[in-house]
Specification:
The chain is mostly helical. The protein has a domain of 29 residues. It is 76% helix and 0% strand. The chain has three helices and no strands. Helix 1 packs antiparallel against helix 2 and helix 1 packs parallel to helix 3. The longest helix is centred in the last third of the chain and has 27 residues. The N and C termini lie far apart (72 Å).
Length: 94
């Protein structure tokens, strides 16, 4: 009786891996930009660049995710940005 090699872990298609990586990258980038935009001080210069990055990254999220899922992801990002905006003031009061 011969020994069998250990079972191999199933591999994903390279295109699937690319889509998963791009989704993660743009989701993280959109979250960072949205939080930065929400917490950016009013008179501080550079707000336009952050706003442009936020718009671009949210559009890319919509591009890389399918339609119903994209809206859920964008809403989650926006909820977290609003929470960061509110926490900014809560931390200053305490």
């Amino acid at each position: 009786m011969t020994a069998h090699p250990p079972p191999q872990k199933p591999r994903l298609n390279p295109k699937t891996l690319r889509v998963m990586r791009k989704r993660r990258e743009w989701r993280c980038r959109a979250l960072e930009a949205s939080v930065a935009f929400a917490t950016w001080p009013a008179g501080k210069p550079g707000r336009e660049a952050i706003e442009a990055e936020t718009i671009k990254s949210l559009n890319k999220v919509r591009q890389w995710f399918r339609s119903p899922e994209a809206q859920v992801v964008v809403q989650a990002i926006q909820r977290r940005a609003v929470a960061a905006f509110r926490n900014q003031f809560d931390s200053k009061q305490t």
